[in-house]
Amino acid sequence: MVSKKMPKGMSGFFSVRQKPSDKWGVEFSDVGRCWWIDTYPSAHEAVRAYDVAVWRAERPREHLNFPQIESRVEAEILVLQNIKMKEITTKKSSVVVHASETDEEAMARFPREHPEYVQAELEHYSKCEAEHKKKEDEAGPSMVIPIESSSEED
């Protein structure tokens, strides 16, 4: 049986895509797990990093962008920077609104089901408030000059 080759993306390579920053990002999926490799200044470097990830995961050679590379060691030599494979373990939760409940009920349920998001939001706004206060303190006190009204009252 002939194995089906994975489709290549718009970059012309497997699992490599250009980011808005014009750098090239590399993601890698393996047996239900998703890995973020890194971003690279060129597509060529990103493709080489992807191939190292394929070698490390012991995937078939047909998943390589450069199948002519003979070994993992050879693939790693061709990569200019160290490969960091960070597993993407969390998926963003969504609020499912059931047909029998209102939006308000669903929003009230969210903090009970996802307290980690509520805590992260509180920490974020606390940090923003502290930064704002620090900027105000550095700027010094502001001076308000009262303007006298010129309207005449009899």
TrEMBL record:
Check the record and name the Gene3D superfamilies matching this protein: AP2/ERF domain (3.30.730.10)
> NAD: present as a keyword of the record?
no
User: Which InterPro entries did the record assign?
Assistant: AP2/ERF_dom, AP2/ERF_dom_sf, AP2/ERF_ERF, DNA-bd_dom_sf
Q: What are the recorded GO MF terms, alphabetically?
A: DNA binding; DNA-binding transcription factor activity
Per the database record, which ranges form the AP2/ERF domain?
A: 6-67
Q: Where in the cell is it found?
A: Nucleus
Q: Which GO terms describe its cellular component?
A: nucleus
Lipid biosynthesis recorded as keyword: no
Q: Specify the superkingdom.
A: Eukaryota
Which stretches are tagged as biased composition: Basic and acidic residues? 129-138
Q: What is its main location?
A: nucleus
- Disordered, as annotated region: 129-154
Record key words, sorted: DNA-binding, Nucleus, Transcription, Transcription regulation
Q: What is this protein called?
A: AP2/ERF domain-containing protein
From which organism does this entry originate? Hordeum vulgare subsp. vulgare
